[in-house]
């Protein structure tokens, strides 16, 4: 590429690149500022609507409070609860309802409900006499006796989207007299507070319930729907309830700010397309492109002018350099002026003079170099022959030393392995000794525990004998109770017969024996009851006797089992004594074996140290032989290299003479 073209590219780059970089920075800074401004605008708009509706909520609660504490309302409900009707108060209350409905413009209806949940009065006349006792806005107020804000829903009567604020009417003792409800038409609410709230050209506001249902929207058909709740950004808005989010909806990139009102359970959302935020950036890009185009044209013209003045002298120097490249060092460059190019021409002429003189000296040196190279080649060949003989001898010594060192190394490895295995056996013997001692201790402890077990078994056997004696005594006692019960039963039968005879005799005496008849009848009844009770007691005594006999039999079996356990425990003690006697001899045998192994380990270590010293010496000899062999091989290699280099220098000096003859210096 020519210098003129390079100047054009360089000047154009210096002019345009800063503009491009500056334009990009301005674009991104402006975009960031626009986005921040948009965020602030969205937040302010959203907060303004939120504040308006919070004020509206306060106004509605205040209206409900005024109506619930109104003397007319309380008097009317008191009269109604006592069965009286007051047309004057009724007309006054309805008139007040209609006045509020007309003044605020977003009410669907205002109504008064009785304490039983029946519609009494309302502004539209649609709820009178209707049973509203199951509606949550009535049941919640009746239960909590405080203001309640309902979820949004569809009106039963008008099918319009609504929400209801209900407030209790209480008497002086806090008992419920009735409920004031204010029904808000969400479409009317949207028209007043949402439809006219524009953000930019296409931005808008909307309100969501905390379950994602649309409360208010510029498009009335969106109210009561959950279209936003089904989207990813809608789910995030519902879950976080406050913040700023950027998302894509139906192919449009949007920015939204949102906040939450806890008492209403509503989320206020302000949204605007991102495309509106970047409109000013397009104008900036157009201006920057125009400036870059003008700057580029001016840069090209300036570069062409400067390039022409610079390139012509350089082209003259380039032509002279082509002739010098052909080997003519007698040529000289003529350049007029006092600038850097003229100075470069003069320096080039000085360089040509110096190179010419140097080439003459190189020719003479190449002749001398050729003669020296021949002498060096002869000497190096003699060195190669000597070094080859030394290398062969040293290699034989090195191989023998290496073989000896390898055999000694194998012996050392075997001794090390033997030492390690003896150490392992010694440790295992120590562990066996400890385990034997521990086993002896455990056996002694087991013997002691079995003695304790025998004592416990004997104690249990003695206790069982006492229990068995008591049970036998109980059996005797039960038998005596049976005898007594038989006597009582016989007495009851005799008494019953005597009472019957007394009744017969009393009947014979006529009128004088009536009183005695009554007494005889009562005695007979008592005798029958005594007889029945005696039979029950006999049955119980029989049952106790049978169960007592079963207990005696089981107790005898338990006694036999305890005697068997005592015999088994005694046999176990004898076995433990044999184990303890055997275990006492084990530690002594282990100690003797461990002592012998320890002596063996010490002697093995001495042998290992001697062998290691021999191995180390053999390895040193082998290493020294290898070093000498390596040195002799290096000497041989160096000698060969010197010989080759001498031949090469001789050839290079001849070529150098041929090349220098090509240059023209005189």
From TrEMBL:
Residues 628-651 are annotated as: Disordered. Keywords: Cell membrane, Chemotaxis, Membrane, Transducer, Transmembrane, Transmembrane helix. Pfam families: dCache_1 (PF02743), HAMP (PF00672), MCPsignal (PF00015). Residues 308-360 form the HAMP domain. Its main location: membrane. Residues 628-639 have a biased composition (Low complexity). It is a multi-pass membrane protein. The chain crosses the membrane at residues 7-29. The keyword Iron does not apply. It is found in: Cell membrane. One of its GO terms (biological process) is signal transduction. The keyword Transmembrane applies. Residues 379-636 form the Methyl-accepting transducer domain. One of its GO terms (cellular component) is plasma membrane. PANTHER family: LYSOZYME-LIKE PROTEIN-RELATED (PTHR32089:SF112), METHYL-ACCEPTING CHEMOTAXIS PROTEIN MCPB (PTHR32089). Belongs to the methyl-accepting chemotaxis (MCP) protein family. This is Methyl-accepting chemotaxis protein.
């Amino acid at each position: 590429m020519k210098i003129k073209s390079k100047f054009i590219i360089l000047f154009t780059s210096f002019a345009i690149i800063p503009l491009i970089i500056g334009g990009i920075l301005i674009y991104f800074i402006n975009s960031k500022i626009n986005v921040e401004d948009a965020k602030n605008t969205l937040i302010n708009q959203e907060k303004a609507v939120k504040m308006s509706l919070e004020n509206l909520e306060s106004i509605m609660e205040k209206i409900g409070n005024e109506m619930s504490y109104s003397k007319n309302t309380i008097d009317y409900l008191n009269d109604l609860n006592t069965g009286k009707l007051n047309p004057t108060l009724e007309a006054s209350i309805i008139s007040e309802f209609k006045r509020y409905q007309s003044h605020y413009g977003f009410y669907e209806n205002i109504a008064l409900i009785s304490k039983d949940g029946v519609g009494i009065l309302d502004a539209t006349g649609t709820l009178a006499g209707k049973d509203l006792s199951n509606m949550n806005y009535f049941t919640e107020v009746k239960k909590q006796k405080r203001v309640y804000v309902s979820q949004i829903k569809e009106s039963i009567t008008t099918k319009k989207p609504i929400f209801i604020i209900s407030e209790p009417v209480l008497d002086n003792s806090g008992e419920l007299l009735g409920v004031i409800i204010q029904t808000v038409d969400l479409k009317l609410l949207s028209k007043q507070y949402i439809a006219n709230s524009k953000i930019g050209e296409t931005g808008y506001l909307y309100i969501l319930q905390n379950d994602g249902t649309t409360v208010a929207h510029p498009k009335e058909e969106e109210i009561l729907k959950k279209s936003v709740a089904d989207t990813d950004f809608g789910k995030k808005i519902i879950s976080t309830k406050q913040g700023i989010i950027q998302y894509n909806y139906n192919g449009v990139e949007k920015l939204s700010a949102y906040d939450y009102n806890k008492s209403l359970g509503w989320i206020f959302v302000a949204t605007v397309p991102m495309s509106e935020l970047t409109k000013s950036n397009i104008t900036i890009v157009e201006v920057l492109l125009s400036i870059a185009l003008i700057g580029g044209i001016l840069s090209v013209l300036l570069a062409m002018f400067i390039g022409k003045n610079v390139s012509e002298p350089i082209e003259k120097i380039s032509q002279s350099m082509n002739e010098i490249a052909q080997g003519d060092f007698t040529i000289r460059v003529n350049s007029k002026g006092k600038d850097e190019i003229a100075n470069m021409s003069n320096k080039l002429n000085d360089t040509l003079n110096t190179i010419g003189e140097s080439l003459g000296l190189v020719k003479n040196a190449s002749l001398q170099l050729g003669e020296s190279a021949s002498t060096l080649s002869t000497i190096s060949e003699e060195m190669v022959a000597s070094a080859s003989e030394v290398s062969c001898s040293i290699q034989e010594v090195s191989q023998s030393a290496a073989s000896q060192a390898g055999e000694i190394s194998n012996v050392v490895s075997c001794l090390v392995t033997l030492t390690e295995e003896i150490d392992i056996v010694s440790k295992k013997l120590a562990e066996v000794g400890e385990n034997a001692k521990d086993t002896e201790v455990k056996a002694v402890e087991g013997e002691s525990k079995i003695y304790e077990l025998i004592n416990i078994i004997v104690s249990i056997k003695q206790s069982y004998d006492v229990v068995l004696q008591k049970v036998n005594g109980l059996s005797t006692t039960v038998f005596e109770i049976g005898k007594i019960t038989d006597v009582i039963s016989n007495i009851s039968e005799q008494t019953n017969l005597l009472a019957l005879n007394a009744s017969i005799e009393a009947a014979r005496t006529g009128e004088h024996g009536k009183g005695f008849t009554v007494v005889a009848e009562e005695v007979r009844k008592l005798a029958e009851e005594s007889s029945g009770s005696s039979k029950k007691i006999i049955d119980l005594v029989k049952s106790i006797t049978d169960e007592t006999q079963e207990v005696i039999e089981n107790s005898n079996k338990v006694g036999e089992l305890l005697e068997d356990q005592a015999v088994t425990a005694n046999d176990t003690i004898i076995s433990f004594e044999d184990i303890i006697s055997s275990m006492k001899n084990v530690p002594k045998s282990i100690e003797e074996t461990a002592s012998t192994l320890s002596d063996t380990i010490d002697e093995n270590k001495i042998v290992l140290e001697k062998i290691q010293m021999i191995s180390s010496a053999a390895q040193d000899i082998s290493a020294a032989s290898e070093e000498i062999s390596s040195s002799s091989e290096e000497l041989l290699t160096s000698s060969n290299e010197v010989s080759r280099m001498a031949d090469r220098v001789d050839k290079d000096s001849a070529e150098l003479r041929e090349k220098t003859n090509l240059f023209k210096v005189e």
